[in-house]
Write a structure and sequence with these properties.
Elements (H helix, E strand, L loop, with lengths): L5 E5 L3 H12 L5 E5 L3 H20 L5 H9 L1 E4 L15 H8 L4 E4 L5 H14 L5 E4 L6 H10 L10 H7 L2 E6 L8 E6 L5 H13 L3 E4 L6 H19 L5 H12 L5 H9 L1 H15 L8 H8 L15
Parallel strand pairs: 1-2, 1-4, 2-3, 4-5, 5-6, 7-8
Antiparallel strand pairs: 6-7
Bound molecules: 3-hydroxybutanoyl-coenzyme A.
The site of 3-hydroxybutanoyl-coenzyme A (3HC) has 17 residues, from helix 2 and helix 11.
Length: 319
């Protein structure tokens, strides 16, 4: 199955940077376009990528030429750098640039908010070629819903039931990577109700080329991974909230008693972020209306306080 020649990654946070890195270094995608609406996020992300590549070289995992070539294949796209034909107040210039550069696959890795992702899918569908794969790295949001947004991006004259609408929705798929992307071995692939077989196979081939094993999940809230992981983390926070055990004892129990690489509170803090934990848990709760998914009150309060984990300097732990 053909791999993309020009991959667009939307969002230069930890996940987007990790995906861009494995796509360039492992899958050797010839061009990886990296877009974020905040240029400082791209600068920060690429500095982190340089550190990861330098570490791989120093450990002999990658040679210097390969690392340099991988880095050279990544091109930053910012709203202000977007093509010369773009006027200053054209908020979609970046997406047109991705299209003009021939992007044949996009992976969206923006914040875990439905409205943000829907906006991106509308814009991508409008600006990328009509056979580009439109993938989301969402942790929990419905791929079927994002496919609906993509069809809306084609304009009000195209209905979801039309051939053009079905073909557009057929190109949308979930490719759910795990943080840290270069290290975690899995990519969960999620077809929406309308995803075509070809799109599914292209998504799987991409994940495998990035060095990942693939698991497939139906499009249910949280998919398999977060339908299992997030209630576990939420329960750990409820244990803390109810005083069942201290923070350290909760994490120690799972680390030493069950052999987890890190405790659930540490995991939420360091590799997921408490705002994302809350967003996923809310998607599970709202998507099923099942009270067993009720988000912990403490989790909500911590997000209200801006205590989001390592990225904000404080979560369950101080950083
Ligand atoms: N980015 C890239 N690489 C990283 C990293 C990071 N943020 N953190 C650690 N690593 C690398 C290290 O450089 C090291 O690489 P090396 O073998 O080449 O030297 C390797 O990971 C192992 O690191 P360490 O020896 O320092 O530390 P550990 O042995 O403690 O392992 C870990 C680190 C692999 C991250 C381990 O703690 C772990 O598996 N933690 C659980 C992570 C996890 O569950 N992630 C999934 C979160 S859920 C998710 O992402 C989905 C979303 O939808 C919620």
């Amino acid at each position: 199955m053909a791999l993309p020649r020009v991959l667009s990654v939307i969002g230069a946070g930890q996940m987007g940077i990790g995906i861009a890195l494995v796509a360039s270094l492992r899958a050797k995608i010839p061009t990886v376009l990296l877009y974020d609406r905040d240029p400082s996020q791209i600068t920060k992300g690429l500095e982190f990528m340089d550190k990861l590549l330098a570490k791989d070289v120093s450990k002999g995992k990658t040679n210097e030429d390969d690392a340099k070539a991988a880095r050279g294949r990544i091109i930053s796209i910012t709203s202000s750098s977007a093509s010369s034909s773009t006027s200053n107040n054209d908020e979609f210039g970046w997406a047109r640039e991705l299209g003009e550069r021939g992007s044949d696959m996009a992976v969206e890795a923006a914040s875990e908010r439905l409205s943000i992702k829907e906006g991106i899918f509308r814009t991508l569908a409008k600006n990328l070629s009509r056979d580009a794969v439109l993938a989301s790295n969402t942790s929990s949001i419905s791929i079927t819903k994002l496919a609906g947004a993509a069809v809306e991006g084609l304009g009000s004259t195209i209905s979801k039931a039309s051939e053009e609408g079905k073909s557009c929705a057929g190109r949308v798929v979930g490719v759910h990577f795990f943080n840290p992307v270069p290290v975690m071995k899995l990519c969960e692939v999620i077809p929406g109700l309308q995803t075509s077989e070809v799109t599914l196979e292209r998504a799987k081939a991409f994940a495998v080329a990035c060095g990942k094993e693939v698991s497939t999940s139906k499009d249910v809230p949280g998919f398999v991974s977060n339908a299992l992981l997030m209630p576990f983390l939420n329960e750990a926070i409820m244990c803390l909230e109810s005083g069942t055990a201290t923070r350290d004892d909760i994490d120690k129990t799972l680390r030493l008693g069950m052999g987890h690489p890190m405790g659930p509170l540490q995991l939420g803090d360091i590799f997921i972020g408490l705002d994302t934990c809350l967003a996923i848990q809310e998607t599970l709760y709202e998507g099923t209306r099942d009270s067993k998914y009720r988000p912990s009150v403490l989790l909500g309060r911590m997000v209200d306080a801006g205590w989001l984990g390592k990225k904000s300097g404080k979560g369950f732990y101080e950083y």
